[in-house]
Amino acid sequence: MSRAQAAVLRPGDWIIYNDGDHQVVALAGTSVRLRSSGGAESVVLVSYLMASPGFSVAGTEPLPALEPFGLLKTLSEPVLARAKEWERHIVEVETGLPPDAEPGTPSRPEYDPAVCSLVERATAKATELGVSLRTVQGRRSRYAQQGVWGLVDQRTVRMVEATGRADARLVAAVREALDAETHSSTGTRSRLIRRVIKMVEATHGVGVVPLPSKNTFYKLVDALSTGRHTFGSAVTRRQTANRPQGVFTPTFADRPGEQVQVDSTPLDVMVVLDSGLTARVDLTIAVDVATRSICAAVLRPVGTKAVDASLLLARMLVPEPMRPGWSQSLRMAASRMPHRRLLDMDTRMEQAAARPVIVPDTVVIDGGKVFISDTFIRACERLGVSVQRSRPRTPTDKAIVEATFSAINTLFCQHLAAYTGANVSRRGERVEEQVAWTVPELQDLLDEWLIAGWQTRAHDSLRDPYRPKKAMSPNDKYTSLVAASGYLPLVLRGEDYLELLPVAWRAVNDYGIRIGYRTYDSADLGPWRRQHSGHAAKRGLWEVHYDPYDLSRVFVRTQHGWITVPWVHLPLVTAPFADFTWSHARRLAAQAGLDDTNEAVIARVLDELLTRAEQGPDKRTNRVVGRTRAAAVVPASTAEPESETDTAAAEAQPPASVMSFGVFDAHAEAERWL
User: I want to staple 492 with a disulfide (CB 3.0 to 4.6 A). Which of 292, 317, 365, 540 is the partner?
Assistant: First the structure.
């Protein structure tokens, strides 16, 4: 049967299917009606029939395989020419003429199909080439099944084992030594070879396992270390070894907020703290998978705290306000985002910048203490956000946010003053002495760049399904997905800012509220002193929220709303302070032999600490103060109207210069805009 006949299934053919003989009764579209040898009829799909194990057409030769054209291109010219020469001979035996014969060329007498049989023609070809008839018949069979590839000398394409003729025991020792190098410092091949020899001799004895020559040993090590980065970067080696063994599945999302990845990393930029000390900052970002929008970004010197991650959520859920000096082209009204639709829902959108407000359904975090803390988890629960933890030491579980950090360093950080580079080998000379931005200034630059640069820049991973060659920006993708999924974000209310702050349960006594050796009191607490809060599970204690970056006041929830309660010794301190600043002041007081439980004493030490920070020789002190002033914020809008006593006390003390916290205060902006 010819190839054309073997590739066609017709009614009446007998086939082998499901371990039995069946006859094709009829063909209808993609369905085949079969009748078994026992008379039972069935209908099956052609695709299912062809893919079933053991399927074949009875009385026919197996279907020929297509030639591996890619492998043919790997052959050398002499080998390929020899195979094509055999093809000419085989075609002449089959048809009587070689494939390159001109039209009208007569066949040679010994190959004329009208005179000689196929066996006679094959015998004549064997005599012509000086080979046996069996050789010619074997070449004919292989050509019928594999084409030109069946005529190639298989000795020239035989796969060679990567380890060559090396002893299996030596190969096992090399693999074991390579595995041990994963978490070690990078060494040379000679060190590895020495360790392998020692390992083999200790296991099998001296001289038992044959060792190759030096050059062969090096080739063996190179062959077995391919893809391991054994003699390259130690970081790359560990990351490669930590990759999952299964198939890598990309993360997809079909609507804004379906999955938001959150992470924190040190930024490759030096900043100037208020104390004059230069240090790097931590960048915490939230990236929406569906649109690749950076929903929020927060900078913090020295380290990121759990409250920073919680406030990151708050900043995601409120519009980004326009800042003084920003171009009007950065307004949401000037973009292609659905501004009017959102404006009908929230009047704050009128003054908002072109950054989408995305409410996350799921937040992907790692095992960092910042994100697994009770503060962050409670904030997510409060907002109805599911929290999904990635596997330990598996950055591929949140690969998008990891790649975004690299993009920020490339597109933003390297253009800044005091850029440090990705590692020490790429760092310039005396970077810490260069002119650098302060944390609030850098935060403002970052916010502007995210709106003007990142959100409007075409992203390679965002493609229009109808125009795959067209890359979309995060804002354009957000606009299209909003129209497709009917997405409408419900932003935070003003009081939700306080809900995201850490909570402590305390009693309201005659002297006020006591937290961490600090006393908070206000005339507004009068009706609630020595009263039961109504929370039996908390033994009648009151719910008190506080900002770790500004301990100058706390917020108490009552049946009638929130009460802002200031620290009683606030007039003694000339600047806002954080919890770590207070702890450092207590340590200084203890070192000076003072009572570190007396808040008046600590207040004086704290004031002295903040006053002499500029000239203080203690770098640790400078870091603490700089971090405090850079991160401090006073949510003034969350406070209740001040009483006359509080107003008089405030007027009596000198005004304090407060540095902006750099985190968007939802309640304050809501009150100001509304």
Answer: 317
